[in-house]
Design goal:
Elements lengths: L3 E6 L3 H16 L3 E2 L8 E6 L4 H19 L5 E6 H5 L1 H7 L5 E3 L7 H9 L4 E3 L20 E5 L1 E2 L10 H5 L3 E2 L2 H13 L4 E5 L8 H4 L4 H9 L6 E4 L9 H9 L3 E6 L7 H6 L6 H14 L4 E8 L6 H14 L3 E6 L17 H25 L4 E10 L4 E6 L10 E4 L9 E10 L2 E6 L9
Parallel strand pairs: 1-2, 1-3, 3-4, 4-5, 5-6, 7-10, 10-11, 11-12, 12-13, 13-14, 17-19
Antiparallel strand pairs: 8-9, 15-16, 15-18, 16-17, 18-19
């Protein structure tokens, strides 16, 4: 009887792609995959270790499966991902129930490690971060019509609050021919929405080719048949070039959407974060992007409560949110990450103050988002069908201004049967909170076979 393997993957989409590569290695070695990790012989927990809440979730998940192991439901527990890479000795020492702990540089050894553990061996292996494969086969955990494509790994930005360079190593791009080959494979498998990811997508190619190559990569991706939407996630404001904006404005397959985590708007705070810019330059850049790419949806992520952030600096951040009026925005309370420069800074704020400031920003953004939704009433937008809500008898999907999992949903009725992965034209009739309500415009309906 085949050994059943299940996986729980936590954290970001970049970690999710790593998980899909791990699953492919497992399948190639003859194991059987199961969608129910609790009913498996082996469970792989692909952890996140980015901020405190993510680390807590990872540890709680590991401990949950340790209980299942004690009760005989699971034979082998494997811990991979960022937490395994960052807290090597601590995991082995504090959670002895974990049979395998693999750093990211040993992901390629996952199947052999599982086989050793099934024989009763304890395995703890770590390689160089740069040994993490940038390409390779994947077992998709997303619907085949909407997929992620990782174009680079690691980061050189060295933001003072961020542990990613410690966990993932320096920035390294995938060769363009490798990226395009995987993109063609994904398209052949039915992918219609391609979401480009990296720690810094806008830096793509600089290390390999001596210049920024994201714009060129996008042009080449647009030549591949099958893609309807190509989306850029996790960019860096300093590397948003006019060439990139020109490609976004002129290539119909590239959605008018860009995710630029700005983190703050006050110049002193940004400098303390080891990031460039200030209020005026950030406002100017957002205005410039909107001028060059009319109708673009801007998404950003902000940090409230950074060490030393004064009330005045926080108020400046709030003014920035009000002035720019991002279509999509998330704000997080600053999380102290050991071994980062920010963790040693003076002026650490208490947790209540940090949480309160993040909540204030999100309340502001909620009002902006609700107004944005109301402004779409009466307009017709293209929607990617994702699901059907049997309780409300409506289809559920996303517009081009909404990335998977993190943004707004569009709920709508249709007079015909639709399927996940279809593209339809939806007239917006109302908005409820963040979500849009509408109906398919049948005479304009368009479906990709």
């Amino acid at each position: 009887m085949a050994i059943k393997v299940g996986m729980v993957s936590l954290g970001c989409s970049k970690n999710q792609v790593d998980a899909e590569r791990l699953l492919a290695l497992i399948v190639h070695d003859g194991f059987e995959l199961s969608v129910d990790p609790a009913a498996c012989d082996v469970v792989i927990i692909n952890t996140c270790g980015f901020i405190e809440d993510a680390k807590r979730e990872s540890i709680e998940t590991i401990l949950e499966f340790c209980q299942l192991k004690k009760s005989g439901h699971v034979k082998v527990i494997v811990v991979t991902g960022c937490l395994a890479e960052r807290y090597r000795d601590e995991l082995v020492r504090e959670i002895p129930e974990a049979d395998v702990v693999l750093g990211i540089g040993r992901n390629f050894d996952i199947a052999a490690a599982v086989r050793k553990a099934l024989k009763g061996e304890k395995v703890a292996e770590y390689g160089e971060k740069e040994d993490l494969a940038l390409g390779g086969d994947r077992v998709l955990t997303t619907p085949n019509y909407s997929v992620y494509l990782k174009i680079a790994e690691g980061c050189d930005n060295k933001c003072s609050y961020c542990a990613i360079p410690l966990i993932r190593g320096g920035f390294r791009s995938r060769p363009m021919e490798d990226v395009l080959a995987e993109a063609r494979q994904l398209a052949a498998n039915g992918a219609k929405e391609l979401n480009l990811i990296a720690q810094d997508t806008t830096r793509y190619g600089q290390d390999l080719y001596g210049e920024l190559k994201l714009a060129e990569l996008l042009r080449e991706l647009c030549k591949i048949d099958g893609f309807r939407w190509i989306r850029i996630l996790y960019g860096y404001p300093e590397r948003v070039t006019d060439e990139l904006l020109q490609v976004m404005a002129t290539e119909p397959k590239i959605v008018k959407y860009i995710d630029l985590p700005l983190q703050h708007a006050n110049g002193r705070v940004l400098k303390a974060m080891n990031r460039a810019g200030d209020y005026a330059s950030m406002v100017a850049l957002m205005k410039h992007i909107r001028e060059k790419v009319p109708g673009i949806a801007l998404r950003t992520t902000l940090i409230a409560g950074f060490p030393g952030e004064t009330e005045e600096e926080f108020e400046e951040l709030c003014r920035f949110v009000q002035e720019v009026r991002f279509e999509r925005l998330g704000c997080f309370a600053y999380s102290v990450e050991e071994d980062t420069p920010a963790a040693e800074m003076d002026g650490q704020l208490d947790e209540e103050t940090k949480r309160h400031r993040a909540e204030v920003v999100m309340e502001q953004q909620m009002n902006i988002a609700f107004e944005t939704g109301r402004s779409l009433i009466g307009k017709t937008i293209e929607v990617l069908v994702e699901d059907y809500d049997y309780d409300n008898l409506m289809y559920v999907g996303r517009s081009a201004m909404d990335a998977p999992d993190v943004d707004t949903k569009t709920c709508f009725t249709a007079a015909r049967e639709l399927h996940p992965g279809d593209f339809v034209q939806v007239e917006i009739l109302d908005s409820e909170g963040y979500d849009l309500i509408g109906r398919e415009v049948e005479e304009e309906a368009e479906e990709l076979e």
